[in-house]
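User: Can you write out an input/output pair for a complex, sequences first and structure second?

Assistant: Here is one pair. Inputs:
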Amino acid sequence: MTALARPDNDALLSTRAHVPEHVVYRAFVQETVVLNLETGRYQGLNPTGGRILDLLGGGHTVGSAARALAEEYQRPVPDVEHDVCTFCTDLLDRGLIELDGDG
Amino acid sequence: MATAELQPEPFPGAVAERWTGYAFGVVLECDDVFPGVMPTTSAANGRSASWREVSREEIEGAWRPDAGEILFERRHPDGRLFLQVDTRSELGFRIWAPYYGRHLVDPDGQAIASALPRVPPVRWQRLFFAQVLPLAAALQGMSLFHASAVALDGRVLPFIGPSGIGKTSLTAHLVSLGASFFTDDVLALEPRPGGVLAHPGPARLSIDDRELRRIPSAQAPRLGPCLGRSDKLMLATQPLETPLPVACLYYLRPDSEATHIVIEERRTEPGRTLLGSSFINYLRSPGYLERHLVISAALDASVQLYDIRIPRGFRPRDIAARVLEHRDELSGR
């Protein structure tokens, strides 16, 4: 199977992402649980991961979500951008988010 | 006027009133009393399933042996079939266990047809209440957990944990000590504002006979009469008749290093424990999976999960006594 081409981080940061219809998630006290309804598989996210999902669902681009997160956590923007891009790429690979225009 | 003229006669085309009972949040409708199901006149939020007895040939005729997708299969150690569940989209589900009966549940869980084998009733009832009625409830929107439960002070205490850990035995001992029976092995839940509502199961509790003998004879009558044996003894334990909110959850876990029974708040990953306690794991429809996620999140947000760490050698009676102490501690008694 050929892996789908993923945008580099610069392109990813300017892109909006969304949670597809076959994915639902709920916040638990200690984590956010994402459920892929097509596979029946659950994925646990730590609170920061859950917050990123909320920001993406609120219409942020990946980059603006990263900047909002950097402000909330008082962290350097480039560091957070890198972490958020890694996180989003992992979710893309698992089919738990889609880039706008992909779906 | 002759007296006979005053006798009511069946109106042509009228439907005779059917018997209705309630378990797992579903009203079961049938022509006669269904053993083990508590009678009701309420509508249970509109969830109902009609039940009728049919011949084996009727089920086999509707469902050819080579048709359908096998969802679940369990075999005896010697390879003989113990239980099989298969599905066909237009017919629903067939649940079949040799010597326990075969049943058809329609795709929306609103109709059940059963071919009952010529065996003692406790045998087919065991399968009906362990698999058939729970499946109908799940198809109608209930979330099912692998749990036994009692009620104390108007709230439900469910016990979850691995198979064979002693959920039913603990429940039986708590009932013998004065708690109200709520359900054995399958717990039906639905969200409600600010919490989770639990629905009682049928009036049946299946227990190992050695464990039943450990219940003092003066207290054993609280568990109801013994109806017979299938793989275990089946007791006609009367559950509460109304849904109740969940107070907290207990997870039973063996702990070989513990020296006494410890009950402590679960601090890590309670959500995963709840998600892993689903009943009817072969049901993978998006709606059922999402409901389980939603109810697990509601439980996580509204009630505390406690671990009961059980050292070697401690029996369900000891655990029951500790649970009652724990409830007293929490309520400040």
